[in-house]
């Protein structure tokens, strides 16, 4: 499943790189060349958004339907309470890093061309791509890598009581029961995970890293731990929508920081 998903995203989400062999460059450009023939009047970003929705959302939903999976089993569902809390906490924690990263020259250089057109149109195009990206990786792919090839049912509520810091940790989904567990199993249980879930989250981070090839070095490096964190949030929220909203808020803030630094 992981190899198929990686080959699939190389068709339309991975930018060709000078270090790639010729056959791989041709492979990554195939879909765009076909798309340009079919929609020759559409600009690059609209073509990118359209291909992302068709190949990153509609095709996976069709495959899932053929395999008897409902959209809610793929994370296309309203998030639980924990997911809504994570959006707020995650954005507040990320804000200082967004300001620092947005000031990096390499980051500004990469996004400069995208900030020279109509800002609202560009934001809509990027949001469509983000929706497809988050659904594919933190919804469809993560679900099929989990046991049962679907998001699990809601987990039981955490135990009550404890000190203030313990209650705060439980409020954001941490400090889950670890009785009878040792070592890695204990750490995972504290995070609200088990081994199969942690492995699935780790594996979906690999193709998520690859689709960031060619981007600013700091963004590429951060995409692997970022992909793991996104997968973790989606798993705990039983929905990819908190990831989408959090990515939208952080990405929009980052572009705003870059735009202000380029003025």
Question: Mind explaining what this structure looks like?
Answer:
The protein has 263 residues and is mostly helical. The protein has helices spanning 2-10, 22-38, 44-66, 81-101, 105-111, 119-145, 164-171, 183-190, 195-210, 217-237, 241-262. The chain has a domain at 71-155 and 192-262. The longest helix is centred in the middle third of the chain and has 27 residues, at 119-145. The protein is globular and about 60 Å long. The mean pLDDT is 85.
Primary descriptors:
single chain; mainly alpha; 263 residues
The biggest sheet, with number of strands, parallel, antiparallel or mixed sense and barrel status, is:
none
Flag low-confidence runs.
Answer: none
The value of Rg in angstroms is 19 Å
> How many DSSP E strands?
0
| Residues in helices, as a percent range | 55-70%
Shape: globular
Q: Supply the number of helical segments.
A: 11
The proportion of residues in beta strands is: under 5%
- What is the average per-residue confidence, as pLDDT, rounded to a whole number? 85
Query: Structural class from helices and strands?
Result: mainly alpha
Order of helices and strands: HHHHHHHHHHH
Distance between the termini: 45 Å
